[in-house]
Please model this.
Amino acid sequence: MSETIKEKFIINGFAGKKSLKGKLRVSGAKNAALKLLPASLLFEDKVLFSNVPEIEDIGRMADLLRGSGAIVKKKERGVYEIDPSKIKNGDLDYEISKRLRASVVLTGPMLSRFGKVTFPHPGGCVIGARPIDIFLEGFEKMGARTSAVKKGDKESFVIKARGGKLHGAEIFFKQQSVTATETFMMAGVLAKGKTILKNSAMEPEITHLAEFLIKGGAKISGAGTTTIEIEGGGMLKMGGQEFKVMPDRIETGSFLILAVLAGKDIEITDCNPVNIEALIELLKLSGAKIKIGETNIIVKENKNLKSVSVKTHEYPGFPTDLQSPMVVFLTQTKGESLVFETIFEGRLNYTESLVRMGANIEIWDPHRIMVKGPSNLKGKVLESPDLRAGLAFVIASIVAKGESVVHNVYNIDRGYEQIEERLKKIGVDIKRVKN
Ligand code: EPZ
Model:
């Protein structure tokens, strides 16, 4: 597994010059594919996905599904066929689940299908505690009870549906949660009776997941709004239809920020700009010139950008996953920007590395920073703490003067397919080196 081979990127920056030219293709969405693969457990026949991003997290999810007995075949690059008919139980591999927050969504289809699931707390990472209280409370309402089991130093949860079957319920999410909304949408598919989810998240990946389930025969209404209704029924059938994973909106937004910062003439292709309106609006307010197409974005040379303040918010607000690339952008704009990270309590720690590069950033509290610009960034040795800050460090290194080293490339590979290959194609001086 590539995590054991510590790798790093060596990047030579352009010192603020606008030199990048060419096309940047966007891959399929990590946070859509990581829910579509588990959703295949609700089907009685094979399911075929295309445009699946070739990233580490998908590899881990495939391992988890295989560990539970599903047959997962990679037909070609980005095309996966899953045969869920051989799935035997709801026990999730402890080690893999620990490393993949998205593993928590498997509890929905597993409980819905088998009435029992065993899994470890999916674990937090540098961005916050990542509790799962909303999941445990929701399953109680659907007639399941949770107990904790300890094997040595490994603690897992066992969730069992009374009578072996979940029943529908009305669940009001005390906090809008993306994976909780997806998990209970899937749990409702095979539950007895109707499930109503209130204060649901509205991210495009949720609407996309509902589209897939409905294609298989599920009765779901309201996805993309805060109230989703699911009528429980029998196993779903795909009947050989293929389902294409939507473009990754966070990758699109990260590439757009890079293009505005260092682009001379860049086209971002195979994307869905309507899903990043919050970012596009702020970039335009800062003075960036951006040409938006149906499935592409064209960026020519931009200069004299003005500071804008950013508040992260559930969709359709500004996405927390674009906060770190946006802060790199703000270090290059003229003026002061207040950045308010409302979703996670640990998602601003990476800024100390940007300060080491020369950025002028004041930390006000765990949720707020003030960015003053523009600053000339200098190349440094950096450690990517998570995949989004890792990519932000790559962007900062491209803008900086001199050489940067970005360690823990596995974190970036978790969410961005062959990132250095795509960046080289537009002129970035980047190479992957084993430690
Ligand atoms: C999803 O995480 C994404 N991950 C995250 O992307 C993204 O940052 C996040 O949504 C917010 O948009 C995947 O889809 C795999 P939440 P999720 O539940 O669902 C609190 C990336 O880089 N909460 O919407 O885990 C939680 O602590 C990742 O691709 C509870 O309190 O996030 C947070 O403050 C990072 N109890 C808030 O809700 C719970 O039981 C929103 O989190 C669950 C969540």
Notes: The pocket of EPZ is lined by residues 30-31, 34, 101-102, 128, 130-135, 175, 177-180, 201, 320-321, 343-344, 387-388, 415 (CB under 6 Å). The chain has two domains: 7-27+247-434, 30-244. The two ends are 15 Å apart (CA to CA). The first strand starts at residue 7 and ends at 12.
